[in-house]
Amino acid sequence: MKTLKFISFIAITFLMACSDDDEITSTCFDGIQNGNETGIDCGGSCTACAEPCSNELAFDETGKYGVNLLRTAGSDIDTLQINSFDVLSMQATTAASCTSLRIVITNVTADCENCWFLFNDFSERRIDNWDVSEYNISNNSQTFTSTGTEMDLSIDAFYGGVYEIEYYVNDSLTHTNYLQSNEDELIPFIDGEFMFSSRKGSNLLFTLAIDVSGFDPDSYFGTLDLDDPNAVVENKFIAHTRTLALKDDIIYYWDFVSNEIRSVDILIPNAVANTLLSNVVENLESDGITSMVFDNEMLYFTLYSFQAESGYIGRIDTNEENPSVEVIVDDFSASPDDVIIENQVLYTTAFLSGDLVTVNLADPNYPMTTLPNYFGEGIRTINSIDITEAHIYYTEQGIVGRVSRDTGEREVLVQTNLDDRFYGIHVEGDFILFSEPADFSAPGSQTIYRQDL
Q: What is the pLDDT of residues 268-298, one digit of tens each?
C-alpha cells in the first residue's frame, strides 16, 4: 500500500512539472516577451536569443586603393574636395553580419547629363564585398550594397561636379555627405585645330592633324609660329598618314594608301611629295608604321602588326639612293603613337600599359629596357611624349604630366576627366602645348591648348 502511494506521488509530481514546462514553452511562439523569456520568444526556457545587431560602422581614412571616399561619414566635413583624377577607395567595416550598408551616389551637378565616374581599372575587378547596381541614367545615380563586413572598392575617377552620398544602415537613411570633384581649366591657344604630333624645326613648329575617330582617311601637316601670340596653322599639306618626322625642315612620313615613305617641303607653295621607299609594309590590312623620328641621317620608325600583336623597330639611311630597312629590335610588342631620340637613346611607350621603353642606339646590340609603371599607377594610354633635360612630359586620357628623369617623381600638370584625350605635347621654354581632338558629337571642336610651367 505504501509502495502504491509513493508511485502515485511521483506520477503527480511529474505531471505537474510537465504542465509547468508546457506553460512556459507555449509562450515561445506568441510574439510577446513573457514567462521567463529574456527577449521576445527567446531566452529562459525558449531558444537562446541571438546577439543584438549593432549599427556601428567604421570608415578608415584610406582603403586598399587610395583615400577613402566615405571617410567623412558622420563628421563635421560636409563636402569632400577631390581632384577629378584622384584614385579613391570606398571602404567600410560593419560591426556585425546582420548590419546592411547601402551607399547611393548621385551626381547633382546642374546641367550634367550622364556625368559619372568609373570604378576599377581595365585589367582587374577590384571589388571587395560590394554589390554594384547598374547605373541609373534617369537620375545619374548608382547604388552599392554591402555583402559582408569588410568592404572596399577601387574608384578610378570622378567627372567634375558635385555628388551626393547617402548612407543607409539596415535600410534607414542615417546621414548624407557631398563630394566636389574639381577639374583644371584649359586655356585655348588655337581653336578649331588639332595637333596629333609635332616636331620643332628651325623656327617653326611642324604639326600633324589626324581624325582619331578613323572615319576620315585624310590628315594634314602644318606649321605654327610660336612667337606669334595670334598664331594660326599655316602651310597645310594633305596626306594619308599618322606619322611625322622632321629633318632640316623637311617632313618625312609613311603614306598608308600608297605604302610609301615620303618626304615633302611644305614651306614651298604647291609642294609635291617625293617617294623615298616603296612597299614598306607587307600587309596593309593589319600592319602599319605608328611613329617616326630622325637621328642625324637615320630615320627610325616603329612598325606594329595588330594581327600578330607584335612589331619591330627599324631604320633607313636617308642619304642612300635606294635605302633598305634595317631591323634593330625585333618582336617589339609596343604600338606607340610617339617616339623621341636624345643622345642616341630612343624613348617610346608601350601601348596600353604605359611602360616607358628605351633603346640604346650606341650599343650595336641595341638593348631595350622597359621601366614598368614609370609614369605611376593609374596610367592608361600614353599618347605622346616630349623630353627636356630634367623631365619626360606626356599626355594621356584627361592628364598632362611630367616625370623627373632624376628621381622618377611624377607631377600632374593638367587634370580633367576621361572624356578628354590629349595628344601632341610640345615643350617650348616656359610653356607647353598639347591638343584635344574633336568630340564625336561636335565636329570642329578640336583645340590646341597652352599651359604655362
A: 999 999 999 999 988 877 788 988 999 999 9
d(CA 55, CA 241): 62
Q: Looking at the domain assignment, is residue 32 inside a domain?
A: no
Same domain, 403 and 358: yes
Final residue before a domain boundary, out of 182, 217, 249: 182
141 contacts: CB under 8 Å, gap ≥ 6? 104, 105, 106, 107, 135
d(CA 73, CA 178): 10
Contact between 110 and 70 under an 8 Å Cβ cutoff? The reply is: no
CA dist list (Å): 229 to 125, 190, 197, 221, 414: 47, 10, 20, 20, 21
Cα 236 from Cα 165, distance rounded (Å): 51
Q: pLDDT confidence of 79, banded at 50, 70, 90?
A: confident
Instruction: Answer whether residue 36 is part of any domain.
Output: no
Question: Do residue 150 and residue 290 come from a single domain?
Answer: no
- Which distant-in-sequence residues (6+ apart) come within 8 Å of 422 by Cβ? 383, 384, 395, 396, 397, 398, 399, 400, 414, 434, 435, 436
Q: Tell which wins on pLDDT, 12 or 375.
A: 375
Residue pLDDT, tens place only, 101-147:
999 998 888 666 556 665 554 445 678 899 988 878 778 888 999 99
Who wins on pLDDT, 190 or 12? 190
**Can you read off the three cell numbers belonging to residue 196?**
596629333
Q: What is the mean pLDDT of residues 426-437?
A: 93
**Domain total in the chain:** 2
Query: How many Cβ atoms are within 10 Å of 394's Cβ, its own excluded?
Result: 28
217 and 135 fall within a common domain: no
**CATH code for the domain of 427:** 2.120.10.30
pLDDT of residue 115: 60
CA distances from 424 to 195, 314, 403, 433 (A): 5, 23, 17, 8
C-alpha distances out from residue 155 to 91, 117, 143, 183, Å: 11, 8, 14, 17
Q: Last residue of some domain: 166, 182, 198?
A: 182
CA distance 134 to 169: 21
For residues 327 and 30, the model is more confident at 327
Rg (CA), the chain: 34
**Joined grid coordinates for residue 432:** 607647353
CATH assignment of the domain containing 73: 2.60.40
